[in-house]
Specification:
about 350 residues, alpha/beta, Rossmann fold, Glutathione S-transferase Yfyf (Class Pi), Chain A, domain 2, 2 domains, six-stranded antiparallel β-sheet, binds adenosine-5'-triphosphate, binds magnesium ion
Length: about 350
């Protein structure tokens, strides 16, 4: 997957910008608050997902303008393809090879990318939902039907929760739980299977990459933590408790992925550097999985990552990335000596200048 041409108009602080990147490493440098992350975010949107910064679509439009437009030309599936994203009236729409899609998620599975930004440390540091989201997002990119399955699971879960809240006032509804539990268990088991399979596959690359990043001084491991062994039985067993709580206490929405470094839980015991390295290993392994599943190497977006790594770790990272197209943002490109081969672009107040 290679970006050949990207154009952004009225996007965040970027009034208009064109970038023709090179196949290998592209460095976007500049002072703080110039629009470097904004540009990576624009690339990311072509995966069909939402902003990785959790921004509302309307906030992506240059303030005072009615709409934003992004156009991409990329090489994938042995041909040049185009994609467009328009953000207007608070919503995102997309076209692929000139064909309008039902919505922006129509681009999912067409353009692949993996993003690492400082906020992603939350993946190790914060609660289980961050880790579930990581696995789910990765699966949505590679497993056809997974996004729809997850949506069905969540819809059924919401319906069961509504029912649980109604039961105290309408005791006769207790019997209808059976039908919901049946449905929820079958979607839920499929979600769990998908996630466990993904962790099983990603585990080896994560271990290998982490060993590389830590220069073979530390080991990492991943384990899926189920909230229930048999979902159907567990749902049945927890009915009374769930009615009292007003929500469903077991299921994949309560599962977690345990990340341990040297056999200790990374969330509770990991240092800052270990957590950052763990997230990098997860992200690069995600890229490797995308490649294995699709035969396409995703575009790698590294926001502000190099400045926090020592030169040994930088070296490993850059060597590991040499077969992908990479976009790296930083403030001072000179400080990163291995970056000499990258194409250089300076971002200055939303204007990109090729160096
Ligand atoms: N919708 C918008 N309209 C206009 N400006 C915006 C919009 N959204 C964000 N900005 C501006 O974009 C700038 C931030 O851009 P960005 O986050 O890309 O900076 P950066 O170059 O990555 O900086 P840093 O090095 O600090 O990470 C801020 O000045 C912010 O006010
Ligand atoms: Mg930034």
């Amino acid at each position: 997957m290679i970006i050949q041409h990207l154009e952004a108009e009225n996007y965040r602080n970027i009034r208009r910008c064109v970038i023709i990147p090179q196949n290998g490493i592209n460095i976007i440098y500049g002072k703080n608050a110039q629009g470097k992350t904004n540009l990576l975010e624009a690339v990311w949107l072509f995966t069909g997902g939402r902003s990785f910064r959790g921004a509302k679509d309307a906030d992506l439009i240059l303030q005072g303008e009615a709409g934003a437009k992004l156009s991409l030309e990329f090489f994938s599936g042995e041909r040049v393809q185009t994609a467009e994203i328009t953000i207007e009236n608070g919503r995102r729409s997309a076209a692929l090879n000139g064909i309008p899609q039902k919505n922006a998620s129509g681009l999912v599975g067409k353009f692949f990318s993996v993003i690492f930004s400082p906020e992603h440390i939350a993946l190790v540091r914060e609660g289980p939902s961050q880790r579930r989201d990581f696995i789910d997002a990765a699966l949505c990119q590679i497993k056809p039907g997974y996004a729809a399955l997850l949506a069905r699971y969540n819809r059924t879960l919401n319906q069961r929760n509504t029912l649980l809240k109604d039961i105290p006032r309408h005791a006769e509804l207790m019997d209808t739980l059976e039908i919901w539990d049946e449905k929820l268990a079958s979607y839920g088991e499929a979600v769990v299977l998908g996630r466990m399979d993904y962790i099983h596959k990603i585990r080896e690359p994560v271990k290998e990459i982490y060993a590389g990043i830590s220069q073979h001084t530390e080991t990492i491991d991943l384990t899926y933590q189920k909230s229930a062994e048999n979902l159907k039985t567990a749902l049945k067993a927890s009915r009374r408790e769930d009615v009292a709580l007003g929500h469903t206490s077991v299921g994949p929405h309560r599962d977690d992925m345990d990340i341990s470094i040297d056999q200790r839980c990374a969330r509770s015991f990991g240092s800052q550097g270990q957590k950052r390295s763990a997230v990098l290993a997860l992200k690069l392994a995600e890229a490797e999985m995308l490649y294995r599943q699709t035969g396409e190497r995703p575009v790698i977006l590294l926001d502000d990552v190099m400045s926090e790594l020592d030169s040994g770790r930088q070296d490993y990272l850059l060597n590991h990335l040499n077969s992908c197209q990479v976009f790296i943002t930083c403030c001072e490109p000179g400080a990163i000596k291995q970056l000499r081969e990258g194409a250089l672009f300076e971002m200055d107040s939303g204007t990109l200048i090729k160096k």
